[in-house]
């Protein structure tokens, strides 16, 4: 049993400062799988080490994607390790052999959680979702569903379901992204509107968006050059701006 703070310090450096120098990295399987099951930030940090073992040492983890799916909660857009998590999530969902129901469940859950996410996270996750559609064209039914539910309450997707195969994501539609097209931040609304058009075959490079912060977003907006905005106004007709006042009878502005 390790304190949470020590767990985090070990897991942050485990994948590049410990595992490469071990004669038998597979000895860390139990430690990493237990850490992965703890939840929260510790599970996010354990992903790095697990990825090394799965990718380089043929570790089989039957419930890996189920656990990964359960890590998607509202805090995932706010945690300190957000960039690292989405970088690994992108790697884990890069295989074209993943079943459509699994990818659709991730797309739908990310979209639902995006409704309460900050703008800097939205500008990263929307291109992320678009990339998933490019890799898995069978999931585009979520966007192009003409006979979808008319009322949001009729959405067949089960958010509380822990098993992706039982979430009924493929039967749903992405009304969440349609909602984000009316977002108060113009860049977010513009990014969400991309799904209204046919996506290009080339994937978006999200590496530069993973580290995007609210400060950088605000700084970018502040530095934009102001443009003259035409406004509607009522032309002045009298001395004090009123159409029919006593001064308008005796004074003229010409």
Automatic annotation (TrEMBL):
GO terms for biological process, alphabetical: ribosome biogenesis
Domain CCAAT-binding factor as annotated: residue spans: 43-192
Transmembrane segments annotated in the record for this chain: 31-54, 85-107
InterPro entries: CCAAT-binding_factor, Noc4
Pfam families listed in its UniProt record: CBF (PF03914)
Similarity comment: family membership: Belongs to the CBF/MAK21 family.
A GO CC annotation given for this chain: Noc4p-Nop14p complex
UniProt keyword terms in alphabetical order: Membrane, Transmembrane, Transmembrane helix
Protein's UniProt keywords contain ATP-binding: no
Protein name: NOC4L protein
């Amino acid at each position: 049993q390790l304190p949470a703070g020590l767990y985090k310090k070990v897991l942050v450096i485990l994948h590049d400062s410990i595992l490469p120098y071990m004669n038998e990295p597979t000895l860390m399987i139990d430690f990493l799988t237990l850490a992965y099951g703890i939840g929260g930030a510790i599970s996010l940090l354990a992903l790095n080490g697990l990825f090394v073992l799965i990718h380089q040492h043929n570790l089989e983890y039957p419930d890996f994607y189920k656990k990964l799916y359960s890590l998607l909660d509202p805090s995932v857009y706010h945690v300190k390790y957000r960039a690292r998590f989405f970088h690994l999530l992108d790697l884990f969902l890069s295989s074209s052999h993943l079943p459509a129901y699994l990818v659709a469940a991730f797309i739908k859950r990310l979209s639902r959680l995006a409704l309460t996410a900050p703008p800097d996270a939205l500008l990263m996750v929307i291109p992320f979702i678009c990339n998933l559609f490019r890799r898995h064209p069978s999931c585009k039914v979520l966007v192009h569903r003409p006979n979808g539910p008319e009322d949001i309450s009729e959405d067949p997707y089960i958010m509380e379901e822990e098993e992706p195969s039982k979430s009924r994501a493929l039967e749903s539609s992405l009304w969440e992204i349609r909602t984000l097209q009316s977002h108060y931040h113009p860049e977010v609304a513009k990014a969400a509107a991309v799904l209204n058009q046919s996506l290009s075959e080339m994937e978006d490079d999200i590496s530069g968006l993973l580290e995007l912060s609210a400060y950088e977003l605000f700084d970018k907006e502040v530095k934009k050059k102001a443009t003259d905005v035409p406004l509607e106004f009522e032309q002045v007709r009298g001395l004090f701006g009123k159409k029919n006042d006593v001064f308008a009878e005796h004074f003229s502005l010409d």
